[in-house]
Amino acid sequence: MKHVPDIQSERALGPDRRVVRDGGDGTLNELDENALEAALSIAETAGDAEVVVLTVGPQDAVDAVRKGLQMGADEAVHVVDDAIAGSDVIGTARVLAAAVTHLGSVDLVVTGMAGLDGLTSLLPTALAQLLDVPALPLAAELTVEGTTVRVRRNLDHATEVLEATLPALVSVTDQANEPRYPNFKGIMAARKKQVTTLTLADLGVDASSVGAAGARTEVLEAAARPPRENRVLLTDEGDAGLRLAAYLVEHKLV
Q1: 245 part of a folded domain
Q2: Is the distance from CB of 179 to CB of 188 less than 8 angstroms?
Q3: I want to staple 153 with a disulfide (CB 3.0 to 4.6 A). Which of 43, 160, 211, 225 is the partner?
Q4: Does residue 22 carry a pLDDT above 80?
């Protein structure tokens, strides 16, 4: 579960050409709520399963897993280390893979389809590769029967059903479910649940393989989007739709 800057707030890159994340407006990545809802539903059906929420990030990223505990997760793990700052997708996946391995026997890893800060959708498959487990990405429906996980994927012109034997990794879309809201009982219960904090040393991860030092990508330059020019503004006097359609046809935009 990722802690991301609020997408409704002013976004910016700092002098280090990284997303500014210390504005105090961070929030839980909404797409990860679908992942947690899927995990909780599976655990409730199985009856004897345990749900652990995991995040990697600075100190305030703990808010993401605390929200997960309020929603019903059993345990929470927060990997925090200054050396992680500046990690790209591969570096983040490397830390997550080490954390999942550190947890012990994990049958199913469930992630959101993307982080709303970067929107690359690359992390789930990178994580699956590092864990050496099957990846079933972009699931609109997820079920587990025995040791088999089955997902339905909605493609542009078809529906696809994939199956794999556990352990496996699944990323879910926002079509998969409607995440539950933390209720008063869940919020109170979460206060008694501990968040385990781990460092790179705890996970046996070389600091030089993550963070800016281990990143395979680098932002060389960034600039604010220039203001729009040559805009055409239409005052609606009842015929704006017709005038807009005529404009699009005239400029061969349809």
Answers
A1: no
A2: no
A3: 160
A4: no
